[in-house]
Amino acid sequence: MVSSLTEVERVLKAAAKGIPKAKAKERAFFMKTKMPLLGLTVPEQRKLAKRGYSFSDLSAQELAAVWTEIWHGAKTHEGKMQAGLALEQFAPELGFGDRWALIRGWCSTINCWDQSDTLSAHVARALEEKPKMVWPVLQAWNSDADLWKRRQSVVGLFFYTRFRAKLPPVARSLKTITALLKDEDYYVQKGVGWALRESYNAYPEQTFLYLKKHAGTIHPDAFSAALEKVSLHEKAEIKKIRKVVRGR
User: Fold this and answer.
1) Other C-beta atoms within 10 Å of 49: how many?
2) Residue by residue, what is the 3-state secondary structure of the chain?
């Protein structure tokens, strides 16, 4: 009997047949994943996840176990991503405790930003639903040795504010972001920029004041994304402050 993991990997490899090695190599460079990459685009991967597999009619609890095995055991980046994309379909049917335990476990074996951001939507949703249970985990991740957990601690605050019915407190969110302003990892800093952009979408006045206060210390890798949504006037003001502070 073919295992679920073997089935998924076979389907992915068949779908990727004919993709030039150069294209796959180009996507691998873009993703910066340490796993073998077949070259399938995200829309192609999403289509396969939506189409389903022979085990897709299992209960949510059974799917959680099957896809957890696939997430941890996948041999390709796309194999791991199939688990992340499938999670959108069965996660709502899980109780919060089981769902949050699954997400926390999966976050322990992320190895590129695409996988990380796929789970960020679930982290933000969990924070929205049960903040008292999720905040302590984000605080622990905020100083974890694993760069993807540190990134998750800020990207998972809002993910995209347009999807949030309830926003995390601005003071607590900005405090979490502040802890990583001097982080040396590129992907953590890209996450900081993302989080500041979304914080501005949620709390424009408070975040604008924050951006002015920290204009000189926000890392270059985070700066452009952090200012993506501010007005041209505000952007000019922040850049002026940054120039003065960094020119000292």
Assistant:
1) 20
2) CCCHHHHHHHHHHHHCCCCCHHHHHHHHHHHCCCCCCCCCCHHHHHHHHHHCCCCCCCCHHHHHHHHHHHHHHCCCHHHHHHHHHHHHHHHHHCCHHHHHHHHHHHHHHCCCHHHHHHHHHHHHHHHHHCHHHHHHHHHHHCCCCCHHHHHHHHHHHHCCHHHCCCCCCHHHHHHHHHCCCCCCCHHHHHHHHHHHHHHHHHCHHHHHHHHHHCCCCCCHHHHHHHCCCCCHHHHHHHHHHHHHHHCC
Find all residues with CB under 8 Å of 221, minimum gap 6, and list them: 186, 189, 190, 193
Token digits of residue 82: 């199939």
- Report CA Rg, the chain: 19
Indicate the pTM of the whole model: 0.93
As averages over each run of 10 residues, the pLDDT of the chain (248 residues) reads 90 95 86 90 95 96 97 96 96 95 96 94 96 98 98 97 96 98 97 98 98 97 97 96 88
Distance CA 109, CA 153 (A): 15
58-62-64 Cα angle (round to 5): 115
CB 48, CB 82: distance < 8 Å: yes
Token pair in block for residue 216: 């000189």
Q: How many residues does the chain have?
A: 248
Cβ-contact 9, 75 below 8 angstroms? yes
